[in-house]
Automatic annotation (TrEMBL), chain A:
Belongs to the ABC transporter superfamily. This is Amino acid ABC transporter ATP-binding protein, PAAT family (TC 3.A.1.3.-). Residues 4-238 form the ABC transporter domain. It holds the Pfam family ABC_tran. Keywords: Amino-acid transport, ATP-binding, Cell membrane, Membrane, Nucleotide-binding, Transport. Its main location: membrane. GO terms for molecular function: ABC-type amino acid transporter activity; ATP binding; ATP hydrolysis activity. It is found in: Cell inner membrane. It is a peripheral membrane protein. One of its GO terms (cellular component) is plasma membrane.
TrEMBL record, chain B:
InterPro entries: AA_ABC_transptr_permease_3TM (IPR010065), ArtM/GltK/GlnP/TcyL/YhdX-like (IPR043429), MetI-like (IPR000515), MetI-like_sf (IPR035906). One of its GO terms (cellular component) is ATP-binding cassette (ABC) transporter complex. It is found in: Cell inner membrane; Cell membrane. It holds the Pfam family BPD_transp_1. SUPFAM superfamilies: MetI-like. The keyword Membrane applies. Keywords: Amino-acid transport, Cell membrane, Membrane, Transmembrane, Transmembrane helix, Transport. It comes from the Bacteria. It is a multi-pass membrane protein. Belongs to the binding-protein-dependent transport system permease family. HisMQ subfamily. It comes from Amphritea atlantica. Its main location: membrane. This is Amino acid ABC transporter membrane protein 1, PAAT family (TC 3.A.1.3.-). NCBIfam families: HEQRo_perm_3TM.
TrEMBL record, chain C:
One of its GO terms (cellular component) is ATP-binding cassette (ABC) transporter complex. The chain crosses the membrane at residues 16-38, 59-79, 85-105, 142-166, 186-204. It is a multi-pass membrane protein. The keyword Disulfide bond does not apply. It comes from the Bacteria. The keyword Transcription does not apply. This is Amino acid ABC transporter membrane protein 2, PAAT family (TC 3.A.1.3.-). Belongs to the binding-protein-dependent transport system permease family. HisMQ subfamily. It holds the Pfam family BPD_transp_1. InterPro entries: AA_ABC_transptr_permease_3TM (IPR010065), ArtM/GltK/GlnP/TcyL/YhdX-like (IPR043429), MetI-like (IPR000515), MetI-like_sf (IPR035906).
């Protein structure tokens, strides 16, 4: 039984057909990298997995819950699916600790004390235990993104969606964020990443999905796919980014 | 409430109302043109180096923006003659409106100019453009485009503010209203109709500004 | 020959300025209350409520404050209510301010980046939880400077209450002018007093805005 099951998903923006029938099965513990040019539909696909974006046709099932574009369903899904964004989206008026504790308290209905323990745990996991009382603005970009990951982890998700989470970072800060992802992967967390980090996709990822013009153009074991692209589109893409 | 509205009673005064509308429209157009021109000059002065001029304009802007329009109007109409500047009611009203709008537009356009990234200036300088050229060709157009909504709203606000000119007997729209209601005592009906006319004028003005925007910023057309 | 000394003029203007201040405070409090209600309606997402607020704002921003004053004044008396100029002015200014404040506050709420909504939704927060814990606290901070800035418009707006006969600073000015025939001096002083009321608010608004920009 796969954890994420995407069935013939189509998405239109007006007359613009951005997803043209996507089929994917992702099992628990897999690390899946979605690559492709901008505009290929990869971010849209990711956002359809947790209901941030409504798909037009087909079906998405995550952890035996059907994903529909509905507030109550998204609330339920939030316990299974976490998401980290390119632009961090930390809440600037809350401290790091408050950022992390907010959803456990409101959504999981945990008491303050328990939420705090969780916050300390996940912060330790991303190596920022001492920043619990800092505000986001006092942190570097890399640290902010690690806090955002910790915030998602605090909901104890089964799968973590990462939408180009290193693209907004200065080059020297990318490594620390990828290190956190690598640790998570080693612990068995299911990761679905939209990324431009080819080395990470090859070395840490299990599977690569190359999207082109709204379709899964090529997919398979990450090392094989990246080493032996079968289509001219993928070879061109790999040559362009490497 | 057993009151019957008698809007029909206003029909005999339609000529008077039409003349009021015309005056208000003329006041609005002249004020908009002069106010925005002066505002551009004011903003240029604020942005420029001449510290005395820049400061003087700053004081003028603050004085106008922090006092009520009606007091400015009274000061000009009643106060200026005592120092030898005699103006008709219409001239005083127009002057007050222009002075008022110019202060606001100075501030709005200045904000637009400040929002233009430094890189634009540096690029223009490196290309060898003079200060004036840089201002009129590189800085001003995008600045105006940026603040266009704020500037045009202010023009509409000033048009609506012209209702106060009735207080010094400028024969505009509100003056017509006051006159009619003093004759037929149907205050509510009269002011209702006049208010609707103002609303229509405001809508018309906004549509007009949209049209001007279309011709003034052709690069937007290309984009959409 | 004038029997009013400069001090007499100033003293009388200062006494009248109290009423300008009181009327401004009432209009601000009333406008903020109604505006809060309207803002909540506007961000509720219910089509009917949103349309109503849109129309309300459109009407009050598209007509002269003077007309609004007249309509409230004559409209209420038409309904058989004998209203004082004082009450009519307070009511009209409340309605007028609420429309502008609603517009300002809606802008502040919309200025909070979309990512904040998305992140909150992904964490499973409900619409009201997002509003209460994420959006409003941030929007409130953004709103302070423009709200203080708009209070200047309210103070200046109270000057129109003079036209329906409420004796505040401007009305006192016209009365003193009629008694002294020294319009330059009288209206100069009136303007100066308004300036003293409004300028600190303008400065405060600008300072708050700058502080916010630095904090970002």
């Amino acid at each position: 039984m796969s954890l994420v099951s995407i069935n013939n998903v189509h998405k239109y923006y007006g007359s613009n057909h951005v997803l043209k029938g996507i089929n994917l099965e992702i099992g628990a513990g897999e690390v899946v990298s979605i690559i492709g040019r901008s505009g290929s539909g990869k971010s849209t696909l990711l956002r359809c997995i947790n209901g941030l974006e409504a798909y037009s046709e087909g079906g998405v099932v995550v952890d035996q819950m059907e994903v529909v574009y509905d507030d109550r369903q998204i609330r339920k899904l939030s316990k299974s699916v976490g998401m980290v964004f390119q632009s961090f989206n930390l809440f600037p008026h809350l401290t790091v600790g408050q950022n992390i504790m907010l959803a456990p308290k409101l959504v999981r209905k945990l008491p303050e004390s328990e939420a705090k323990v969780i916050a300390q745990e996940v912060l330790a996991k991303v190596g920022l235990a001492e920043k619990i009382d800092s505000y986001p603005a006092e942190l570097s970009g890399g640290q902010q993104q690690r806090v955002a990951i910790a915030r998602s982890l605090a909901m104890n998700p089964k799968v973590l969606l990462c939408d180009e989470i290193t693209s907004a970072l200065d080059p020297e800060l990318v490594g620390e964020v990828l290190k956190v992802l690598e640790d998570l992967a080693a612990e068995g967390m299911t990761l679905i990443l939209v990324t431009h980090e080819m080395n990470f996709a090859r070395d840490v990822g299990d599977r690569v999905i190359f999207m082109h013009q709204g379709l899964v153009w090529e997919e398979g074991d990450s090392k094989t796919v990246l080493a032996n692209p079968q289509t001219p589109e993928l070879s061109k893409f790999i040559n362009a980014v490497l | 409430m057993d009151y019957t509205f008698q809007f029909g009673e206003l029909l005999p005064y339609s000529d008077l109302i039409a003349r009021g509308v015309l005056s208000t429209v003329i006041l609005a157009i002249v004020t908009t043109v002069l106010g925005c021109l002066l505002g551009t000059l004011g903003a240029a002065a604020r942005a420029g180096k001449q510290t005395f001029l820049s400061r003087a304009v700053g004081v003028y802007v603050e004085l106008i923006r922090n006092t009520p329009f009606i007091v400015q109007l009274f000061f000009i109409f009643f106060g200026l003659p005592t120092i030898g500047i005699k103006l008709t009611a219409g001239e005083a009203g127009l002057l007050a409106m222009v002075i008022n709008l110019a202060a606001y537009s100075t501030e709005i356009i200045r904000a637009g100019i400040e929002s233009i990234p430094k890189g634009q200036l540096e690029a223009a300088r490196t290309l060898g453009l003079s200060r004036t050229q840089t201002f009129t060709r590189v800085v001003l157009p995008p600045a105006l485009e940026k603040i266009y909504p704020a500037l045009t709203s202010q023009c509409i606000i000033v048009m609506l503010g012209s209702a106060v000119l009735s207080q010094i007997s400028v024969e505009e729209l509100t003056f017509a209203a006051n006159f009619i209601q003093s004759r037929n005592f149907l205050s509510f009906e009269v002011y209702m109709v006049i208010t609707v006319i103002y609303l229509l004028l405001a809508i018309l003005m906004r549509q007009g500004f949209k049209l001007i925007h279309y011709f003034m910023f052709p690069n937007l057309r290309a984009r959409s | 020959m004038s029997v009013f000394s400069d001090w007499d003029i100033l003293r009388n203007l200062l006494l009248a300025a109290r009423w300008t201040v009181v009327l401004s405070l009432i209009a601000f409090a009333g406008g903020a209350t109604v505006g809060l209600l309207l803002t909540m309606m506007q961000v509720s997402g219910r089509t009917l409520l949103v349309r109503f607020t849109r129309l309300y704002i459109e009407l009050f921003q598209g007509t002269p404050l003077l007309m609004q004053l007249f309509l409230v004044f004559f409209g209420l008396s038409l309904m058989g209510l004998e209203v004082s100029a004082w009450f009519a002015a307070a009511l009209a200014l409340t309605l007028f301010s609420s429309a502008y404040l609603t517009e300002i506050w809606r802008g502040c709420i919309e200025s909070i980046p979309r990512g904040q909504w998305e992140a909150s939704r992904c964490l499973g927060l409900s619409y009201f939880e997002i509003m209460r814990h994420i959006i409003l606290p941030q929007a409130l901070k953004v709103a302070i400077a423009p709200t203080v800035g708009f209070s200047v418009q309210i103070v200046k707006g109270t000057a129109l209450a003079s036209i329906i006969g409420f004796v505040e600073l401007t009305k006192a000015g016209t009365m003193l002018n009629n008694a002294t025939f020294e319009p330059f001096k009288v209206f100069g002083m009136v303007a100066l007093l308004y300036f003293l009321l409004c300028y600190p608010l303008s400065v405060a608004s600008r300072k708050l805005e700058r502080k916010l920009n630095v904090a970002r």
